Protein backbone atom coordinates (compact mmCIF):
# COMPACT_ATOMS: atom_id res chain seq x y z
CA UNK A 1 0.00 0.00 0.00
CA UNK A 2 2.83 2.36 0.91
CA UNK A 3 4.61 1.42 -2.29
CA UNK A 4 1.50 2.14 -4.34
CA UNK A 5 1.05 5.50 -2.63
CA UNK A 6 4.70 6.30 -3.30
CA UNK A 7 4.34 5.40 -6.98
CA UNK A 8 1.18 7.50 -7.20
CA UNK A 9 2.96 10.45 -5.57
CA UNK A 10 6.00 10.16 -7.85
CA UNK A 11 3.75 9.99 -10.90
CA UNK A 12 2.31 13.45 -10.17
CA UNK A 13 3.76 16.64 -11.72
CA UNK A 14 6.58 18.30 -9.78
CA UNK A 15 4.49 21.43 -9.01
CA UNK A 16 1.72 19.29 -7.51
CA UNK A 17 4.18 17.37 -5.35
CA UNK A 18 5.83 20.60 -4.13
CA UNK A 19 2.45 22.15 -3.33
CA UNK A 20 1.38 19.07 -1.37
CA UNK A 21 4.64 19.00 0.62
CA UNK A 22 4.32 22.73 1.38
CA UNK A 23 0.78 22.33 2.73
CA UNK A 24 1.80 19.41 4.91
CA UNK A 25 4.77 21.37 6.32
CA UNK A 26 2.54 24.40 7.07
CA UNK A 27 -0.02 22.25 8.88
CA UNK A 28 2.63 20.43 10.92
CA UNK A 29 4.41 23.67 11.88
CA UNK A 30 1.10 25.31 12.82
CA UNK A 31 0.10 22.38 15.02
CA UNK A 32 3.53 22.30 16.66
CA UNK A 33 3.46 26.05 17.32
CA UNK A 34 0.03 25.83 18.98
CA UNK A 35 1.24 22.96 21.17
CA UNK A 36 4.42 24.79 22.21
CA UNK A 37 2.55 28.01 23.04
CA UNK A 38 -0.13 26.10 24.96
CA UNK A 39 2.53 24.33 27.04
CA UNK A 40 4.28 27.63 27.80
CA UNK A 41 7.45 26.66 25.92
CA UNK A 42 6.96 29.56 23.54
CA UNK A 43 5.38 32.76 24.89
CA UNK A 44 3.99 35.82 23.17
CA UNK A 45 6.34 38.67 24.23
CA UNK A 46 4.51 41.85 25.22
CA UNK A 47 6.06 45.15 26.33
CA UNK A 48 4.22 47.09 29.05
CA UNK A 49 4.74 50.83 29.54
CA UNK A 50 4.22 51.98 33.14
CA UNK A 51 4.42 55.29 34.96
CA UNK A 52 6.54 55.19 38.15
CA UNK A 53 3.67 56.24 40.41
CA UNK A 54 1.19 53.57 39.33
CA UNK A 55 2.18 50.97 41.89
CA UNK A 56 2.11 53.14 45.03
CA UNK A 57 5.68 52.18 45.92
CA UNK A 58 5.42 48.46 45.17
CA UNK A 59 6.61 46.81 42.00
CA UNK A 60 3.25 45.38 41.06
CA UNK A 61 4.20 43.99 37.65
CA UNK A 62 7.26 42.21 39.02
CA UNK A 63 5.12 40.61 41.71
CA UNK A 64 2.49 39.71 39.14
CA UNK A 65 5.10 38.08 36.89
CA UNK A 66 6.43 35.94 39.74
CA UNK A 67 3.00 34.82 40.89
CA UNK A 68 1.79 33.68 37.47
CA UNK A 69 5.07 32.08 36.33
CA UNK A 70 3.88 28.69 37.58
CA UNK A 71 0.76 28.93 35.41
CA UNK A 72 2.75 28.58 32.14
CA UNK A 73 1.11 31.66 30.62
CA UNK A 74 0.97 32.11 26.86
CA UNK A 75 2.30 35.67 27.18
CA UNK A 76 5.51 37.11 28.61
CA UNK A 77 5.56 40.67 29.97
CA UNK A 78 8.52 43.02 29.76
CA UNK A 79 8.23 46.28 31.67
CA UNK A 80 9.18 49.63 30.15
CA UNK A 81 9.37 52.31 32.86
CA UNK A 82 8.11 55.75 31.84
CA UNK A 83 8.23 59.04 33.70
CA UNK A 84 4.50 59.80 33.46
CA UNK A 85 1.07 58.53 32.43
CA UNK A 86 1.27 60.70 29.32
CA UNK A 87 4.60 59.13 28.34
CA UNK A 88 3.13 55.67 28.91
CA UNK A 89 0.21 56.45 26.59
CA UNK A 90 2.58 57.88 23.98
CA UNK A 91 4.67 54.70 24.07
CA UNK A 92 1.58 52.69 23.09
CA UNK A 93 0.66 55.08 20.31
CA UNK A 94 4.19 55.07 18.87
CA UNK A 95 4.42 51.26 18.88
CA UNK A 96 7.16 51.18 21.51
CA UNK A 97 4.85 49.22 23.82
CA UNK A 98 2.07 46.68 23.33
CA UNK A 99 0.38 47.46 26.65
CA UNK A 100 0.34 50.55 28.84
CA UNK A 101 -0.87 51.63 32.27
CA UNK A 102 -2.59 55.00 31.90
CA UNK A 103 -4.92 57.29 33.81
CA UNK A 104 -8.19 57.94 32.04
CA UNK A 105 -8.36 61.71 32.57
CA UNK A 106 -4.69 62.41 31.84
CA UNK A 107 -3.96 60.61 28.59
CA UNK A 108 -5.79 57.83 26.77
CA UNK A 109 -3.91 56.52 23.70
CA UNK A 110 -5.91 56.70 20.49
CA UNK A 111 -5.09 53.06 19.67
CA UNK A 112 -5.70 51.69 23.18
CA UNK A 113 -8.53 49.45 24.37
CA UNK A 114 -9.10 48.61 28.04
CA UNK A 115 -8.08 45.18 29.32
CA UNK A 116 -8.52 45.75 33.06
CA UNK A 117 -9.08 48.54 35.58
CA UNK A 118 -6.28 48.65 38.13
CA UNK A 119 -7.78 51.35 40.35
CA UNK A 120 -10.72 53.71 40.61
CA UNK A 121 -9.89 57.05 42.28
CA UNK A 122 -12.73 59.10 43.76
CA UNK A 123 -12.87 62.88 43.96
CA UNK A 124 -13.85 63.86 47.51
CA UNK A 125 -14.08 67.17 49.36
CA UNK A 126 -13.17 66.83 53.07
CA UNK A 127 -14.27 69.52 55.52
CA UNK A 128 -14.18 69.98 59.27
CA UNK A 129 -17.08 68.51 61.22
CA UNK A 130 -17.99 72.06 62.24
CA UNK A 131 -18.04 73.43 58.66
CA UNK A 132 -21.25 74.61 56.99
CA UNK A 133 -19.86 73.74 53.56
CA UNK A 134 -22.06 71.05 51.95
CA UNK A 135 -21.33 71.05 48.21
CA UNK A 136 -18.91 72.07 45.45
CA UNK A 137 -21.40 74.81 44.50
CA UNK A 138 -20.49 76.69 47.69
CA UNK A 139 -16.76 76.89 46.90
CA UNK A 140 -16.89 80.36 45.28
CA UNK A 141 -14.83 82.75 47.40
CA UNK A 142 -13.35 79.89 49.47
CA UNK A 143 -9.79 78.68 49.84
CA UNK A 144 -9.15 74.97 49.59
CA UNK A 145 -6.16 72.72 49.94
CA UNK A 146 -5.45 70.22 47.19
CA UNK A 147 -3.91 67.07 48.66
CA UNK A 148 -0.43 66.94 47.19
CA UNK A 149 0.43 63.77 45.28
CA UNK A 150 3.69 62.14 44.26
CA UNK A 151 4.06 63.74 40.82
CA UNK A 152 3.48 67.09 39.16
CA UNK A 153 1.38 65.36 36.50
CA UNK A 154 -1.09 64.02 39.07
CA UNK A 155 -1.22 67.38 40.89
CA UNK A 156 -2.07 69.12 37.63
CA UNK A 157 -4.70 66.47 36.94
CA UNK A 158 -6.36 67.13 40.31
CA UNK A 159 -6.42 70.86 39.63
CA UNK A 160 -8.01 70.29 36.20
CA UNK A 161 -10.70 68.12 37.78
CA UNK A 162 -11.55 70.94 40.17
CA UNK A 163 -11.72 73.41 37.27
CA UNK A 164 -14.05 71.06 35.39
CA UNK A 165 -16.46 70.75 38.32
CA UNK A 166 -16.44 74.52 38.92
CA UNK A 167 -17.07 75.15 35.21
CA UNK A 168 -20.15 72.91 35.34
CA UNK A 169 -21.61 75.16 38.04
CA UNK A 170 -20.57 78.34 36.24
CA UNK A 171 -17.93 79.25 38.83
CA UNK A 172 -14.83 80.98 37.51
CA UNK A 173 -11.76 78.94 38.64
CA UNK A 174 -10.09 82.14 39.81
CA UNK A 175 -12.80 82.63 42.44
CA UNK A 176 -11.60 79.56 44.32
CA UNK A 177 -8.17 80.03 45.90
CA UNK A 178 -6.10 76.88 46.19
CA UNK A 179 -2.78 75.57 47.32
CA UNK A 180 -1.17 72.12 47.37
CA UNK A 181 -0.50 70.74 50.84
CA UNK A 182 1.12 67.46 51.88
CA UNK A 183 -0.71 64.93 54.05
CA UNK A 184 1.08 66.10 57.20
CA UNK A 185 0.13 69.75 56.53
CA UNK A 186 -3.59 69.56 55.91
CA UNK A 187 -4.64 68.78 59.50
CA UNK A 188 -3.14 71.98 60.91
CA UNK A 189 -4.41 74.02 57.94
CA UNK A 190 -8.01 72.89 58.54
CA UNK A 191 -7.78 73.20 62.33
CA UNK A 192 -6.51 76.80 62.07
CA UNK A 193 -9.10 77.70 59.39
CA UNK A 194 -6.32 78.43 56.90
CA UNK A 195 -8.31 76.49 54.35
CA UNK A 196 -12.03 75.78 54.15
CA UNK A 197 -11.76 72.29 52.71
CA UNK A 198 -9.38 69.68 51.37
CA UNK A 199 -9.84 68.21 47.90
CA UNK A 200 -8.49 64.67 47.57
CA UNK A 201 -8.42 62.02 44.88
CA UNK A 202 -7.91 58.41 45.85
CA UNK A 203 -9.25 54.84 45.97
CA UNK A 204 -11.71 53.36 48.42
CA UNK A 205 -10.19 51.56 51.39
CA UNK A 206 -6.83 52.40 52.89
CA UNK A 207 -5.22 55.15 50.87
CA UNK A 208 -4.72 58.87 50.55
CA UNK A 209 -8.33 59.79 51.38
CA UNK A 210 -8.54 57.60 54.49
CA UNK A 211 -5.21 59.07 55.68
CA UNK A 212 -6.46 62.61 55.07
CA UNK A 213 -9.64 61.91 57.06
CA UNK A 214 -7.59 60.58 59.97
CA UNK A 215 -5.19 63.52 59.91
CA UNK A 216 -8.00 66.10 59.91
CA UNK A 217 -9.95 64.26 62.63
CA UNK A 218 -6.89 64.20 64.88
CA UNK A 219 -6.06 67.89 64.31
CA UNK A 220 -9.62 69.19 64.76
CA UNK A 221 -10.72 66.70 67.45
CA UNK A 222 -13.89 66.17 65.45
CA UNK A 223 -15.09 63.72 62.83
CA UNK A 224 -14.76 65.42 59.41
CA UNK A 225 -17.47 65.45 56.76
CA UNK A 226 -17.12 64.04 53.24
CA UNK A 227 -18.71 65.79 50.28
CA UNK A 228 -19.29 63.93 47.04
CA UNK A 229 -20.87 65.15 43.84
CA UNK A 230 -24.53 64.39 43.23
CA UNK A 231 -24.32 65.64 39.64
CA UNK A 232 -21.38 63.35 38.84
CA UNK A 233 -23.15 61.63 35.92
CA UNK A 234 -23.79 64.96 34.20
CA UNK A 235 -20.37 66.41 35.02
CA UNK A 236 -18.60 63.28 33.71
CA UNK A 237 -19.98 64.01 30.24
CA UNK A 238 -18.14 67.33 30.21
CA UNK A 239 -14.78 66.08 31.55
CA UNK A 240 -13.12 63.44 29.31
CA UNK A 241 -11.90 60.35 31.12
CA UNK A 242 -14.13 60.75 34.16
CA UNK A 243 -17.15 58.73 35.23
CA UNK A 244 -19.76 58.72 38.00
CA UNK A 245 -19.12 56.33 40.88
CA UNK A 246 -20.93 55.36 44.06
CA UNK A 247 -18.79 55.12 47.17
CA UNK A 248 -20.11 52.55 49.62
CA UNK A 249 -20.95 53.40 53.21
CA UNK A 250 -17.82 53.16 55.37
CA UNK A 251 -15.57 52.66 52.31
CA UNK A 252 -12.74 54.77 53.80
CA UNK A 253 -12.85 53.23 57.29
CA UNK A 254 -11.72 55.13 60.37
CA UNK A 255 -12.83 55.34 64.03
CA UNK A 256 -16.18 56.49 62.68
CA UNK A 257 -16.21 54.86 59.22
CA UNK A 258 -16.67 57.31 56.36
CA UNK A 259 -18.79 58.03 54.52
CA UNK A 260 -21.66 57.56 56.93
CA UNK A 261 -23.90 56.65 54.02
CA UNK A 262 -23.32 55.77 50.36
CA UNK A 263 -22.59 58.81 48.20
CA UNK A 264 -22.10 59.59 44.52
CA UNK A 265 -19.01 61.32 43.26
CA UNK A 266 -16.76 61.79 40.24
CA UNK A 267 -14.03 59.21 39.56
CA UNK A 268 -11.07 58.57 37.29
CA UNK A 269 -9.50 55.19 36.55
CA UNK A 270 -6.02 53.79 36.19
CA UNK A 271 -6.26 51.27 33.39
CA UNK A 272 -4.27 48.60 31.63
CA UNK A 273 -4.83 49.18 27.93
CA UNK A 274 -3.59 47.28 24.91
CA UNK A 275 -3.20 47.99 21.23
CA UNK A 276 -6.44 47.35 19.36
CA UNK A 277 -4.44 45.13 16.98
CA UNK A 278 -3.44 42.69 19.74
CA UNK A 279 -4.98 39.22 19.20
CA UNK A 280 -8.00 38.47 21.34
CA UNK A 281 -6.35 35.39 22.84
CA UNK A 282 -3.41 37.50 24.12
CA UNK A 283 -5.57 40.10 25.88
CA UNK A 284 -7.90 37.36 27.14
CA UNK A 285 -4.89 35.54 28.60
CA UNK A 286 -3.75 38.70 30.42
CA UNK A 287 -7.26 39.18 31.85
CA UNK A 288 -7.29 35.53 32.95
CA UNK A 289 -3.93 35.80 34.69
CA UNK A 290 -4.90 39.01 36.51
CA UNK A 291 -8.09 37.40 37.78
CA UNK A 292 -6.31 34.17 38.69
CA UNK A 293 -3.53 35.87 40.61
CA UNK A 294 -5.58 38.61 42.33
CA UNK A 295 -6.06 36.69 45.58
CA UNK A 296 -2.35 35.91 45.81
CA UNK A 297 -1.29 39.43 44.83
CA UNK A 298 -3.37 41.10 47.54
CA UNK A 299 -1.08 39.56 50.15
CA UNK A 300 2.00 41.13 48.55
CA UNK A 301 0.66 44.20 46.78
CA UNK A 302 -2.17 46.46 48.09
CA UNK A 303 -2.49 47.70 44.52
CA UNK A 304 -4.06 44.35 43.52
CA UNK A 305 -7.21 44.61 45.68
CA UNK A 306 -8.62 47.28 43.36
CA UNK A 307 -8.33 45.28 40.12
CA UNK A 308 -11.70 44.94 38.40
CA UNK A 309 -13.19 43.99 35.05
CA UNK A 310 -13.86 46.92 32.69
CA UNK A 311 -17.41 47.87 31.82
CA UNK A 312 -18.11 49.52 28.48
CA UNK A 313 -21.28 51.05 29.98
CA UNK A 314 -19.70 52.65 33.06
CA UNK A 315 -20.18 56.16 31.70
CA UNK A 316 -16.54 56.75 30.78
CA UNK A 317 -17.07 56.05 27.04
CA UNK A 318 -13.77 54.15 26.99
CA UNK A 319 -13.91 51.02 24.80
CA UNK A 320 -12.99 47.55 26.10
CA UNK A 321 -10.73 45.18 24.17
CA UNK A 322 -12.90 42.37 22.71
CA UNK A 323 -10.47 39.69 23.96
CA UNK A 324 -10.75 40.89 27.56
CA UNK A 325 -14.51 41.38 27.26
CA UNK A 326 -14.88 37.81 25.96
CA UNK A 327 -12.94 36.45 28.95
CA UNK A 328 -14.88 38.40 31.60
CA UNK A 329 -18.19 37.45 29.96
CA UNK A 330 -17.18 33.77 29.82
CA UNK A 331 -17.11 33.65 26.02
CA UNK A 332 -13.37 33.45 25.42
CA UNK A 333 -12.08 30.89 22.94
CA UNK A 334 -8.84 29.24 24.00
CA UNK A 335 -5.84 29.29 21.71
CA UNK A 336 -6.45 25.60 20.95
CA UNK A 337 -10.11 26.30 20.13
CA UNK A 338 -8.99 29.08 17.83
CA UNK A 339 -6.46 26.75 16.26
CA UNK A 340 -9.14 24.11 15.69
CA UNK A 341 -11.24 26.77 14.02
CA UNK A 342 -8.32 27.67 11.79
CA UNK A 343 -7.65 24.02 10.99
CA UNK A 344 -11.34 23.52 10.21
CA UNK A 345 -11.12 26.41 7.76
CA UNK A 346 -7.93 24.93 6.31
CA UNK A 347 -9.65 21.57 5.90
CA UNK A 348 -12.39 23.26 3.87
CA UNK A 349 -9.78 24.98 1.71
CA UNK A 350 -7.91 21.71 1.27
CA UNK A 351 -11.16 20.03 0.27
CA UNK A 352 -11.68 22.62 -2.47
CA UNK A 353 -8.06 22.27 -3.57
CA UNK A 354 -8.42 18.49 -3.52
CA UNK A 355 -11.38 18.70 -5.86
CA UNK A 356 -9.33 20.95 -8.12
CA UNK A 357 -6.46 18.46 -8.05
CA UNK A 358 -8.81 15.63 -8.96
CA UNK A 359 -10.07 17.68 -11.90
CA UNK A 360 -6.54 18.59 -12.97
CA UNK A 361 -5.25 15.07 -12.58
CA UNK A 362 -8.36 13.79 -14.38
CA UNK A 363 -7.36 15.88 -17.36
CA UNK A 364 -3.82 14.59 -16.98
CA UNK A 365 -5.07 11.02 -16.89
CA UNK A 366 -7.18 11.63 -19.96
CA UNK A 367 -4.17 13.08 -21.72
CA UNK A 368 -2.03 10.14 -20.58
CA UNK A 369 -4.61 7.67 -21.95
CA UNK A 370 -4.50 9.36 -25.34
CA UNK A 371 -0.69 9.28 -25.31
CA UNK A 372 -0.73 5.57 -24.47
CA UNK A 373 -3.08 4.97 -27.40
CA UNK A 374 -0.71 6.85 -29.70
CA UNK A 375 2.26 4.90 -28.33
CA UNK A 376 0.53 1.60 -29.11
CA UNK A 377 -0.28 2.77 -32.65
CA UNK A 378 3.31 3.80 -33.27
CA UNK A 379 4.63 0.48 -31.91
CA UNK A 380 2.32 -1.40 -34.31
CA UNK A 381 3.57 0.75 -37.17
CA UNK A 382 7.20 -0.08 -36.28
CA UNK A 383 6.43 -3.79 -36.05
CA UNK A 384 4.55 -3.85 -39.40
CA UNK A 385 7.25 -1.79 -41.09
CA UNK A 386 9.65 -4.72 -40.95
CA UNK A 387 7.77 -6.52 -43.79
CA UNK A 388 5.91 -3.62 -45.46
CA UNK A 389 6.29 -2.71 -49.15
CA UNK A 390 6.95 0.82 -50.41
CA UNK A 391 3.28 1.81 -50.86
CA UNK A 392 2.53 0.60 -47.36
CA UNK A 393 5.52 2.52 -45.99
CA UNK A 394 4.12 5.71 -47.56
CA UNK A 395 0.76 5.11 -45.91
CA UNK A 396 2.50 4.46 -42.55
CA UNK A 397 4.37 7.76 -42.81
CA UNK A 398 1.04 9.49 -43.38
CA UNK A 399 -0.37 7.73 -40.31
CA UNK A 400 2.59 8.98 -38.21
CA UNK A 401 1.90 12.54 -39.39
CA UNK A 402 -1.73 12.13 -38.38
CA UNK A 403 -0.70 10.79 -34.96
CA UNK A 404 1.59 13.77 -34.36
CA UNK A 405 -1.15 16.20 -35.45
CA UNK A 406 -3.66 14.55 -33.09
CA UNK A 407 -1.19 14.76 -30.19
CA UNK A 408 -0.53 18.43 -30.86
CA UNK A 409 -4.25 19.19 -30.97
CA UNK A 410 -4.70 17.48 -27.59
CA UNK A 411 -1.70 18.70 -25.57
CA UNK A 412 -0.36 21.62 -27.63
CA UNK A 413 3.15 20.43 -26.74
CA UNK A 414 4.54 16.92 -27.40
CA UNK A 415 6.06 15.02 -24.49
CA UNK A 416 9.70 13.98 -24.70
CA UNK A 417 8.73 10.29 -24.69
CA UNK A 418 6.34 10.72 -27.62
CA UNK A 419 8.93 12.64 -29.62
CA UNK A 420 11.43 9.81 -29.09
CA UNK A 421 8.94 7.13 -30.23
CA UNK A 422 8.02 9.17 -33.33
CA UNK A 423 11.71 9.54 -34.18
CA UNK A 424 12.33 5.79 -33.76
CA UNK A 425 9.25 4.92 -35.89
CA UNK A 426 10.40 7.30 -38.63
CA UNK A 427 13.89 5.80 -38.57
CA UNK A 428 12.34 2.31 -38.85
CA UNK A 429 10.45 3.37 -41.97
CA UNK A 430 13.59 4.87 -43.50
CA UNK A 431 15.58 1.68 -42.82
CA UNK A 432 12.87 -0.45 -44.48
CA UNK A 433 12.84 1.79 -47.58
CA UNK A 434 16.62 1.61 -47.81
CA UNK A 435 16.48 -2.17 -47.51
CA UNK A 436 13.84 -2.41 -50.27
CA UNK A 437 15.84 -0.23 -52.60
CA UNK A 438 19.04 -2.25 -52.10
CA UNK A 439 17.40 -5.68 -52.52
CA UNK A 440 17.52 -7.37 -56.01
CA UNK A 441 14.32 -7.28 -58.04
Question: What is the makeup of the main sheet?
Answer: 10 strands, mixed
Along the chain, the helix and strand elements come as HHEHEHEEEHEHEHEHEEHHHHH
Unreliable residue stretches: 1-5, 54-58, 359-367
Residues in helix, %: 40-55%
Q: In the CATH scheme, what's the topology name of the domain at 105-274? A: D-Maltodextrin-Binding Protein, domain 2
Q: Number of DSSP helices?
A: 13
**Pairing-aware structural class of the strands and helices?**
alpha/beta
Q: β content, as a range?
A: 15-25%
Supply the CATH architecture of the domain at 105-274. 3-Layer(aba) Sandwich
Radius of gyration: 41 Å
- Mean of pLDDT: 79
**CATH homologous superfamily descriptor of the domain at 105-274:** Periplasmic binding protein-like II
What's the CATH first level of the domain at 105-274?
Answer: Alpha Beta
Number of strands: 10
Beginning-to-end CA distance, first to last residue: 60 Å
Coarse morphology:
rod-shaped
Structure notes:
With 441 residues, the protein is of the alpha/beta class. Among the domains are: 170 residues, D-Maltodextrin-Binding Protein, domain 2 (3-Layer(aba) Sandwich), CATH 3.40.190.10; 74 residues, no CATH class. Helices cover 50% and strands 17% of the residues. It contains 13 helices and 10 strands. Strands 1, 2, 3, 4, 5, 6, 7, 8, 9 and 10 form a 10-stranded mixed sheet that branches. Helix 5 links the parallel strand 5 and strand 6. Helix 9 packs across helix 10. It is rod-shaped.
Amino acid sequence: MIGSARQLFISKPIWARNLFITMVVVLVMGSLSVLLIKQGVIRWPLKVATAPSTTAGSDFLNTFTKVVAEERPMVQLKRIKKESFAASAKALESGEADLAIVRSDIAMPSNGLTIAIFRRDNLVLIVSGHSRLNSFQQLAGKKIALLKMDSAERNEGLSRLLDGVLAYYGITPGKVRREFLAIDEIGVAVAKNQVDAVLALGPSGLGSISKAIGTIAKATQASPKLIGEKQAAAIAKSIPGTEPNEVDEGAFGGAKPKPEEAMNTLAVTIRLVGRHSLPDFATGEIARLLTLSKAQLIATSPFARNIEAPDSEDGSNLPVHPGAAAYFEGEQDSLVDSAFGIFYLISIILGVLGSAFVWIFGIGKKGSAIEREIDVKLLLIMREARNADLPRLDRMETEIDEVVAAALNQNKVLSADLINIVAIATQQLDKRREALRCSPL
